[in-house]
Structure formats: structure tokens, C-alpha cells
Amino acid sequence: MRHSLVIxxxxxxxxxxxxxxxxxxxxLYGGPGLDIHLVDPHPPGAGRVWRAAQSPLLWMxxxxxxxxxxxxxxxxxxxxxxxxxxxxEWAGIDGRTFADRQLQGGYLRWVHExxxxxxxxxxxxxHHPCRALRVGGPRAGRQQVWLEDHPRPLPADLVVLAxxxxxxxxxxxxxxxxxxxxxxxxxxxxxxxxxxxxxxxxRPGEPVLVRGFGLAFVDLMxxxxxxxxxxxxxxxxxxxxxxxxxxxxxxxxxxxxxKIGYDWSGERPPLPRFLGSAETAELLARPQGFDFPxxxxxxxxxxxxxAHYHRLFAAHPERTAIAWTDFEEKYAAAGDAAERETLxxxxxxxxxxxxxxxxxxxxxxxxxxxxxxxxxxxxxxxxEADLSRRHDSRHSPDLAVFLGLLSVYGQxxxxxxxxxxxxxxxxxxxxxxPGPRLRQLLALSRAGVLNFVGADMAVRAEDGVFRASxxxxxxxxxxxxxxxEARLPGPTVRRARDPLLRALxxxxxxETPDGLLRVDRVDGRILxxxxxxxxxxxxxxxxxxGRTPGAFTRPRTGGPAFRQNDATARAALxxxxxxxxxxxG
Length: 585
What we know:
The chain is α/β, with parallel strands linked by helices.
């Protein structure tokens, strides 16, 4: 009898899993034929986020040379390396290009087709362009995957959830704001995928409060300006007259740091140094568990500092006061942050060359402006300085910190859920917009199409309108009849709109305090509330506590998603192989 593997989600994560199945099958699977069923209403490879049917104005958030779906020898995995082209090599474009998402979708479709073609002849892939509704079946037996508009379920020896980013039901605050908007004839757009949002209710010339300053905001900015006929002439924005006026703020009150615009040269910092597999293993072995602020963050700080100063001493020794060997020895021996700060103060004369993670994370903390006009000028100066710094190789320790962040993330995914703060911090420093997008933001600000509200933006629904304020500009309030939550829905199981995840929640799977699906750290098997892994169900992606920065990654940076894909693929193949052996026996 042929075996059956059902993969729910045919986007880049599902494609990456198929690629790893193809790579590992010659070693691990010699059983009977295998049917792989891909269940996804969107096209295989591209999935929802990278599908062709979206605005060509929307870009990727990485240089084309920094995007790959293929493994290399930096990935810590048991399976074989199968190298392949980066996006820029495949597309034949300049590696420094920020490609549009439609082009990335084409790359992902090609990777999917290549992965399917690499499968053994006994393996057949079937795509079901619909949604999976629920999974049933005994732990020790075959599973059934029920599909919408299908009278009978798919039989499955194994099921892998690779669902990617999902819609979620609004939380209490969002429901209250929507109800208020309905009652008073206002517009409230809750967290959503901006490319899928209906923005038609945001009328030309009218003020719109925007809460969120990350990548969802950048998409919103593009669709409401160029997407409505505006254009840029150099550093000047020429409005079409169809734009609303955006008043944007967030917890930090500033946009994410710009993507770094220069290449690495010379020796890379030897990472990991203070937060590697030995340290994560020790944290996981603690009977009482670990606390992120107390036990993990000090290691993160030390690792990022090491990356920063290694580069500073190697590339800019004239800006240091002692030899690197002396600094490295003392830095390694320093017992806490205070000791490191004392060492750095004596070894790095210019405070501008010292790493200050708190200032990078919250640059407006304690900063006050006397008027909104002063703040507009002040924040434009901040963005201009950030753009200048991120495109100036004299500040190359910033790129070393970026590499340190990738190394740290690769270790932290081994720990499971480390809370939402870390993911926000990582995104702010390492996953910001392309430089040209921030230059557009500056042009929109100068044109009066976009205004800054400040940090710790508070929104009140009162007197039939929405009002926003920030301690950054005391006493200043912005009033509007429209509010947009410019951020993705939270990846929670309990509030997911996806019917399959809701059914799993009701069934009693293990969840983190943030509502993520708990999975086995080794191979991604779904855990029940007793901590027992389900032998036939796996999950990968942002709705799990093994979430990674993305389903694809920068070449030669270890690719934690690739490592997870390989482990899950190998576990699945071994299970199916042994299942075939027991059936024969």
C-alpha cells in the first residue's frame, strides 16, 4: 500500500520541506510509493504572501543576493547539502536590487517545481487548491485530513502543518474599536496583511491615524501614495490628490532601521562565541527552566557586543585604545554588563563607536519636543542620520551586529518560545525597510502627506472620533475619523481564523502563554498538553514556538528554517520507512 503524507501549506515553508524530502529520500526511504498531498488555496511555491496577484509596487525586504531557498555547508543539519541559485542569480538581476514580490513568487514557483522534480520516481505530488478544515484519527493510526468542499477526508500516515502567516480573530481591544467605529460611522482597519486590505474607505485628503511603524506600515504607505497615482521626482513627492494624510506612531515612534547598504569585507566575527549550542543546551537542561531577561538576554547582549567590537578592532583599529587580544581576554572574563561597559569606556574613546542596544531599540525614550513641527524636523533628521549611517562602511560594526543577530536567532529558536519582545527587537534592528523606502518616507513627510505622532502612541475612542497622542510631544493630539492598525495579526492558535488550528486548540494541544503551538524542538512534532509529541503530526512556521526569521534566508548564515525543515523531513521519512517495514513484517 502506498504511503500518504499531507502537507497543509504549499508556500515557501512547504516547498522547503519538499526540497529536504527529495534530498534525504535516497538515504532514508526505500519503502513503497509515497503520495504527497499539498493542501493550499494559493499557488504552490509562492503561497499567499508571494502570489502573483498583488501590486507590483510592493517589494521584497532584502537585496536579491540575500535571498535563497537552498542549503549550504553553514546549515547545522544531518541531511545532504543541495545548493542552488539565489534570487539574483536565478533572475539575472543586480544583487543589490530590491526585487518586487511578484518576481520572488516566480523564484519560489521555480524552486517548488525543481524540488518536485528531484523526488524519487515512486513519489507523487498532488495539489489540492482548498483549505484543510480539521485533522482526525488515533495517535497510533492513520490520520484523516478533512478538506472544504470534499465529502471524504484525505488519508494520511503523517500530517505536517506548514501554514505560514495566518489571519486571526481580533482581540478585545480591536473588537471594541471596530464596534465604536461602526456606531459612529468611522473607519477602523484591524491588523491584517496590507496587500489584502480594502483601503478604499480611506478617503483623499482626510487624516488617518496609523498605529505601527514596521513593514506592514511601509506597504500601507506605498499603496496609499504611489498606489493612488502619486510619483517621486528625485527626493520630491508629487501628490495625485487622492492620498489621505497619514499620522503614524508606534511604541518606539520611529521606523525600523534601514537595511544596510554596503558589502562585507575582511574577516567575519567568529560566531557563535558566547551564545552557542552549548549555552542553549545548558539553558534547556535547567530543571527550573529559564527566564529570558535574567538568563538569556545577558548572553545575547554579550554576543552582539562581541560581534560589534570584533569588527571595530579589526577594521578600524585607529578608533581603539588597546590591542584586540587584551580587549578580547578582558571582555570574555567580564562577569556582567557593568564590567563590560567599564572595559569598553577605556578601550573605545568615542562614545559613537560603542554599542548601545537600549538606545538603538528605543531612541525616543525620554526625548521631548515642544511642538509637532519641531518633532517632524527632529524625526526627519533621525531617519536621515540612520540612512547615512547604514550606507557608510565606516560604521561596519553595524553589519557585524546584524550577523550577530542572525547567529543569536539561530540559537534562540532551539529554546522554543522566548516571547514577543525579542522578535520585535530583532525585526527593528535586522529586518527594516530598504533605504529607498525611507527616502520616500522623508519625501512624503516634507510634502505633508505623512506626519509623525511619536513614541508610546496612545489611541482613544471618544467624542465620536479617534484621537492619538504621544509623550514625545506633550499636549499634542491628532484627531481622525479613520484608524489603521499597521501590523500583522498575532500568530496565535487560540485566535486563528484557520479552522484546522482552531480545531487543534479545542482538541487540547500545548500552547505557549503567547498562544503559539508547542512543538518538539528536535523534529517539530506537535505536543499535547502533557508535553507528549504526537507521532503522526508535525508543525513548522510562525504559529509554532519554533518560529524562525523566515522560510528563506541570507546565504551562508546557517538558515534555522532549513535546519528545521531537514529535521522534520528526516523524521517523516524514517517514520514512513519503518511503517513500511512493520507492515511487511
